[in-house]
Amino acid sequence: QVQMVESGGGVVRPGRSLRLSCAASGFTFSSYGMHWVRQAPGKGLEWVADISYDGSKKDYADSVKGRFTISRDNSKNTLYLQMNSLRAEDTAVYYCAKDLLGLVVYVIPSYLDYWGQGTQVTVSS
Amino acid sequence: ELVLTQSPASVSLSPGERATLSCRASQNIRNFLAWYQQKPGQAPRLLIYDASSRANDIPARFSGGGFGTDFTLTISSLEPEDFAIYYCQQGSNWPPLTFGGGTKVEIK
Q: Above 90 in pLDDT, residue A108?
């Protein structure tokens, strides 16, 4: 069965860095675009970033552009999110999620059919 | 940026009742809309995509409809496990992918 397990979250001071990982199994990881979505405490869902199945296309929310970097290692079935210059407003549960449609760089429409359980990131002094 | 507006923000219903949730897009998104269910402490779960197609293992009491800018999610007869928050998401004009603010379905 499809499974995604996030790790790497924790408590970090403002301005510091953190790297999240998402280990995927149960599907052909190298065939699907992947996303990071976050949820601040008591708030709704906010899309953060995506990467195409082959890593050739990456997109970011304006709120994280220039600070966060998404990447993937298809040989390890793992997705990453490097988060630099963290701010208090980055505090959230971070989920990785898989695109419903595969083997397309520009996925339209894009829907997220499987999600990990999330990892908590807290930015606080 | 395309905005999705969900209404109502919350609704109180009894098990067995029908729930009708609304999602309005600020631009025409054809039928490129999904619905997710989220329970406390859990990740979202895809219910509906392409406005009306049920995802794998989703019960038939969940149905979606709409086209263009106005969409609905209907739960024909609420089961105890259906009390949760529901989000719509557009998959048409992105990046960014955008979600609605959510509708909380509470037990009356």
A: no
